[in-house]
Amino acid sequence: MPDPSAPPQPKRPNRFWLFAPYVLLVIVILVWSGVWMVEKLAVEQVVTRKAAKLEAQGYVARWSAMKIDGWPFRVRVTFTAPKAGDSAGWQVEAPRFEAQAMAWAPRTWVIAAPDGLTLTRPGLGPLTVAGKQIRASIGAVGSDRPRYSFEGDGLTLTPAPGGKPASFSSLDKLEAHLQPGPDDQAALLLRIEGGALRPETGLAKLASGKPFALVWDSRLTKLAALKGSNWPGEVQAWRNAGGSMTVANAEIGIGGLKLKGEGGPLMVDTDGRLSGQVPLTLDAAGQNQALLKALGLLGPVPLTFKDGRAAIGPIPVGAALKIG
């Protein structure tokens, strides 16, 4: 029996709370890793299934290799030698595409082409696009009202063998955003900064070697009608449904001149080119008034798209913008 005269033994300390935070951390990491793996497999299955469905419908959607990583907080998909296109002849390919989303927000994806890309245009051939940054984003993936954005910085546009040159040889910045809104409408914003026009283009005569700039903030109607098996088909379906474009704000900087305006509506003709008129006002401060008067640029100046051609006031500037 214990000796009653012996001093009491100290209680053994409870070390549970010393190790509990570490045990909890390990459990959280294991659970989250399981969630991430499930999401990785789901993304791989969805991408593969969607590509097979598009190929069966006559589109091009293929790559030579696909890798998915990004644990713990991202899901990053790297495509090697990807190629995508429609039945009308539009096609984009690149050495590598990287698409990533935050693991807890898989409906918003950012896609980058770090090594540039090649855009093939129907009737115009391939165009090589390189730049400091080329990326796009898609929001609300899986919904009937996704959001699209494109951003390019320090772009150079070079016709590949067999391709015709674009209107611009380089662009300091190019942005395009399509944001769905209420009442079957959408906001379309196009922004160009530091555009170097090729000498053979109509606008180059007005630019006089100076960079071209554009802000085109517009509203589209009948957004739901913009559907089809390829982009020209989508545009024509939209046209047939009575879709139109109204310009909320247009700013054109060319040859040291700046024109601003708003209006419309603009339609699309059967050839997929814009048709209509937007009234512009020239900021003539500090300009040669006599020269502007002789050119017919004093007062309201209409930007006109008609019969496949574009003109600023009485000055023809080339083909009207073809969007389909």
Mass-distribution shape: elongated
Query: What is the string of helix and strand elements?
Result: HEEEEEEEEEEEEEHEHEEEHEEE
Helix content: 10-25%
The total number of structural domains is 1
Question: What would your notes on this structure say?
Answer:
The protein is α+β, with helices and mostly antiparallel strands. It has one domain (32-267). The chain is built from four helices and 20 strands. It has helices at residues 16-56, 202-207, 231-240, 289-295; strands at 60-62, 65-69, 74-80, 83-85, 91-93, 96-102, 109-112, 117-121, 125-130, 133-139, 147-159, 168-180, 186-197, 212-220, 245-254, 257-268, 274-282, 300-306, 309-312, 315-319. The chain has a 20-stranded antiparallel β-sheet that branches. The mean pLDDT is 85.
Which properties best describe this structure?
324 residues; 44% strand; 20-stranded antiparallel beta sheet; elongated; 4 helices
Spell out the blueprint of helices and strands.
Elements: H1 16-56, E1 60-62, E2 65-69, E3 74-80, E4 83-85, E5 91-93, E6 96-102, E7 109-112, E8 117-121, E9 125-130, E10 133-139, E11 147-159, E12 168-180, E13 186-197, H2 202-207, E14 212-220, H3 231-240, E15 245-254, E16 257-268, E17 274-282, H4 289-295, E18 300-306, E19 309-312, E20 315-319
Summarize the structure.
With 324 residues, this protein is α+β, with helices and mostly antiparallel strands.
